[in-house]
C-alpha cells in the first residue's frame, strides 16, 4: 500500500530519470545495490520496465534534492562537491517518538558496515533500541556524537559512502555538521540540573553517564528507592544498580555495561527524578574513579535541591506586617484566634492572604486571640493607618499548635489519583447491579477441599466465574479505541485483580483466566499478590488486562461502585456475603422461606462499549455461572 502511494508521484516528477537509458548508464554506481522494486515497476503504466536497471525508490527522492522524512531514517544525496553518500537520519523507532538520545555508537568512523549491522543504540521515549543499517558501505562521518540528547526525528546523525576511498572526500559541511555542533553546544550551555554537561570532557577519563530509565510506558519520572551498588563498586552486565519507584511499582535497574560505579548523581531517596536525567557515572578503569569524583564535585554536577535562603523584596515586605487582609484570611484568624501582627503578608501591596494564615498555623507562628474582632470594617484609609493588631482587634497570647500533618504521597498513588480522575471525567460510566446466591459456590469450595484437598478462595472462584462470562459474551471483553472511534474486541481474557499495598493499589493480571483451572488461578494470584505487596511486580505482570475485579468482601461492605481502569471497559465490584431470608422453591414445588447467602455484584462499564443488551447479557451470564458453579469445570 505504501509503495502504491509513493510510486506515481515519483514517476510524474522524474519521467526522464526512469526512461532515459543514457542517464542510467552515466551513473551506474548510483543504482548499484538498489534492487528492491524492480517487479513493482512492471505494474507502472507508461514505463518500459524491461529497459530499466533495478532502482530503489528511496534514492529517487534524494536525487531530486527533495528532502523526505523516511520511516527507516535514511536519505540519499549527491552533489558536485561530495561523492555519492547516504545521510542517515534519526529514525522513529516507536509510534510516539519525536526525539531520541544517542546512547552509544557501535560503529566508528571508517568502519565497514553490512546490511543488518547495528550502527548505534538510541534511547527513545520507551526504551533503548538498536538501529540497524539498511545499506552496505562505510561509515564516513558521525554527525551527532555519543551522548547527545533530544535529537529530533529526521535530523541527520551520520554519513555513509559506498567506497572506502570516498570517506576522506566527504566535506565537513555535508549533513549540517555545523547545526549538530550548535545543538551539542547549546545542550552543554543550557544543561539541566544534575547534568554531566557541566563537566568538561577533556578533564574526565572515558566514562558513561547513566540516565533515569523509562521502566514503564507511562513513566515520566521516578524515585530512587535504594542504591544496591555504592561508589567505587565493580559492576558486571546484569548487576542490579538500584531500585527505582515508578508510577506502577518498585523495579530493579540493571547494568548494561561492565565497569565501576564512579559517581552517584541522584542519591538514595531522591524524588521525582525526570526520565532521561543523569543519575550516575560509570568508568571502565578503576583508576579513573577518583578523577570523576574530583571533577564532578568541582564542577557541581549535581545541584542540591534544597533552596538557599536569601533576602528578597517580598521577604522584606513580610517583616513589616500587612496593610490589607483578604476575607478568607480574616475568617481563619477569627476561628483560630491568631495575632495578625505576627503573620507575614506575601500578597500584593502588603495584603495578608489565606495561604499566609495557613502557613502560620502549620509553623506555629500565629498567636491565640483573647478579644473579639471589631465588628465594623474600617475604610481603606483606616487600613493603611492602623496597625495590624488594631485592625483586627487581636492580641498575642500563646502559640497555635499544628492541627494536621502532611503525609507524602508515593509515586504510585499520585498516578492512581490522576488516572481515576481522568477515568471519571472522560469515560461514561454505566452501572448494573445484581445479587447472586453464594450457597452453590460455598458448597463447591467445601467439596474441593474435603474430597480433592484443593484449597481455593472465594475470590479465586469469582475470577474464574467472571472470565467464563467474558468468554461467553465476547462483546464485553473489549475496549474503546478513541482514535478510531470504535469498539475493539480482545483476543484473550486477561483479568486484572485489585491488590491493596502500602504504596497504593496494584492490579496484577491473570492471563487467559478462562482457560486455567481453579487451582492454577489460586496459585498464580497468591504469587502475584505477594510480589505486588513487596513491590517486585514486573511490567508484563501488571500492564495490560482486559477486565478488572475489585473485591471488598473481606470488609463490612455490602455493595459499592468501582471506577473503570482505562483503557479497559469494565470492572466488577464484589461486596460481602450476607444471610437473608427469601422464598425458595422446594423439591415438592412449594415455596418456603429459607436462609440463603447472597452477594452483591456491581458492574461499572464504559457505555461506549456496553449498551443495555451487552451489559444485560454479561450480568445474566454471571448469574448463571454462580447458580450452576460446576459448569466452570467444563
From TrEMBL:
Keyword Mitochondrion present in the record's keywords: the answer is: no
* PROSITE patterns for this protein: BIOTINYL_LIPOYL (PS50968), LIPOYL (PS00189), PSBD (PS51826)
Put simply, this protein is called Dihydrolipoamide acetyltransferase component of pyruvate dehydrogenase complex
Q: Where is this region: Disordered?
A: 184-203, 294-315
Cofactor(s) required, per the database record: (R)-lipoate
Entries under Pfam families matching the protein: 2-oxoacid_dh, Biotin_lipoyl, E3_binding
Q: Which GO terms describe its molecular function?
A: acyltransferase activity
Q: Name the residues that span the membrane.
A: none
Q: Which InterPro entries match?
A: 2-oxoA_DH_lipoyl-BS, 2-oxoacid_DH_actylTfrase, Biotin_lipoyl, CAT-like_dom_sf, E2/Pdx1, E3-bd_dom_sf, PSBD, Single_hybrid_motif
Instruction: Please provide one cellular component term from the Gene Ontology annotations of this protein.
Output: pyruvate dehydrogenase complex
Q: What is the lineage of its organism?
A: Eukaryota, Viridiplantae, Streptophyta, Embryophyta, Tracheophyta
The species is: Anisodus tanguticus
* Main EC class the enzyme belongs to: transferase
* Keyword Transferase part of the UniProt annotation: yes
Q: Which residues form the Lipoyl-binding domain?
A: 85-161, 207-283
Instruction: Give the Peripheral subunit-binding (PSBD) domain ranges.
Output: 324-361
> What biological process terms from GO does the record include?
pyruvate decarboxylation to acetyl-CoA
Compositional bias of type Basic and acidic residues: which residue ranges? Answer: 302-315
Superkingdom of origin: Eukaryota
- The catalytic activity of this protein is classed by the Enzyme Commission as 2.3.1.-
